[in-house]
């Protein structure tokens, strides 16, 4: 089972590809995703090769709590794993808020 601390770039990309497949199985959700990103249906396959795009897929899912929970159940991971994968794909380091 993948945990946030055991997430690798490869497992993050695999999770994001699974997320894209999850969206594709829900035409209404996929339509909203395409509208928000401005990407056309014919461009998805090419875009999916880019880590930044895959990070954007996870961003989209994380922006809707109900969708995040549904995807987490589908992928059999905790929502925190989705967040960690997004952080890895975005290339940004995670920093906790400190007082």
Description:
With about 100 residues, the chain is mainly α. The chain has one domain (about 10-90). It contains six helices and no strands. It has helices at about 10-25, 25-35, 45, 50-60, 65-75, 80-90. It is globular, with a radius of gyration of 13 Å. The N and C termini lie far apart (about 35 Å). Mean pLDDT is about 85; it is low at about 95-99.
SSE order, one letter for each helix or strand: HHHHHH
* Structural class by secondary-structure content: mainly alpha
The amount of beta strand, in percent, is under 5%
| Helix content percent band | 55-70%
Total domain count? 1
The span between the termini is 33 Å
Radius of gyration: 13 Å
Quaternary structure classification = single chain
How would you sum up the global shape?
globular
Mean pLDDT: 87
Largest sheet: none
- What count of helical segments does DSSP give? 6
Count of DSSP E strands?
0
Low-confidence stretches: 94-99
Q: Could you provide a short overview of the structure?
A:
The protein has helices at 9-24, 27-37, 44-47, 51-62, 65-75, 79-90.
């Amino acid at each position: 089972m993948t945990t946030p601390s055991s997430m690798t770039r490869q497992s993050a990309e695999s999770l994001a590809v699974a997320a894209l497949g999850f969206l594709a199985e829900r035409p209404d959700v996929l339509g909203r995703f395409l509208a928000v990103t401005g990407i056309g249906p014919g461009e998805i396959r090419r875009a999916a090769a880019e880590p930044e795009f895959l990070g954007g897929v996870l961003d989209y899912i994380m922006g809707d709590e109900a969708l995040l929970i549904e995807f987490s159940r589908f992928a059999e991971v905790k929502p925190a794993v989705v967040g960690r994968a997004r952080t890895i794909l975005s290339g940004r380091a995670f920093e906790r808020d400190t007082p």
